[in-house]
Specification:
GO terms for molecular function: ATP binding; ATP hydrolysis activity. With 243 residues, the chain is of the alpha/beta class. It is built from eight helices and twelve strands.
Length: 243
């Protein structure tokens, strides 16, 4: 699904990521952890194709195609989707209109998923305008459910969300990266940033990565990595990897 090779990324002339290698197979969900400022969001945005994140070295191969030079909207059309940690408010654009643009040949999904995400009463409101933290997250997940990407990236989906909303969001995210052959004709894949690890209660994560100082330092069982970080901190995780 995704192969990132020797990736170097600059933001405003400063190198934030270097020598990043990541391989996510079809049907796999990976979890990315790391301290604040380590480059996690930069990695997701570089993969998605944001123009302010300059790739100076390396390649991004998506579904067998080199997309390193493609624009954000071209990557989205090719099957990438992303949920932001802090999505913008879009004045003048109604949520229902946005979902209609995303729905393509399946407009009936707007009502179906809108009801599922408790967002049916938000269709005539400007995107994220006056939304609570939980409502913004539900709106983001709803947009991804409508878009139906092959590969989804989620930036701290549990951040700022209460327990009631995390349950709803968690179960819906599980559908975005689900592997049931009887429901879909392909396996979807995902890359999820988490600090708390709450999302692991809802998804079947295959591999965890620990990113520090702009480089992936550790790969392994996501729950084991999270437990080590919670007990001993990121530096101990780095020492463990070196040993």
């Amino acid at each position: 699904m995704l192969k990132v090779t020797d990736l170097h990324v600059e933001v405003e002339g400063k190198e934030v990521l270097h020598d990043v290698n990541l391989h996510i197979g079809e049907g796999e969900t990976h979890v990315l952890m790391g301290p604040n400022g380590s480059g996690k969001t930069t990695l997701l945005r570089a993969i998605m194709g944001f123009s302010s994140y300059k790739i100076t070295e390396g390649k991004i191969i998506f579904k067998g195609r080199d997309v390193t030079g493609l624009s954000l909207h071209e990557r989205a059309r090719y099957g990438m989707g992303m949920m932001f940690q802090r999505p913008p408010t879009i004045a003048g654009l109604k949520l229902g209109k946005l979902l209609s643009a995303l729905s393509g040949s399946a407009p009936e999904n707007i009502g179906k998923f809108g009801s599922q995400m408790n967002m049916s009463n938000f269709m005539d409101r400007d995107v994220n305008s006056g939304f609570s933290g939980g409502e913004i997250k539900r709106s983001e997940v709803l947009q991804l459910l409508i878009q139906n990407p092959d590969f989804v990236m989620l930036d701290e989906p549990e951040s700022g969300v209460d327990l009631e909303n995390i349950s709803l969001i968690g179960h819906s995210i599980a559908k975005l990266v689900e592997k049931d052959r009887h429901i879909i004709d392909r396996h979807k894949s995902g890359l999820i940033i988490t600090h708390t690890g709450y999302i692991l209660d809802y998804i079947d994560a295959d591999t965890g990565h620990m990113l520090c100082d702009g480089e992936i330092k550790c790969h392994g069982n996501p729950r084991e990595i999270l437990k080590l970080i919670q007990e001993k901190g990121y530096q101990e995780c780095i020492k463990c990897q070196k040993n």
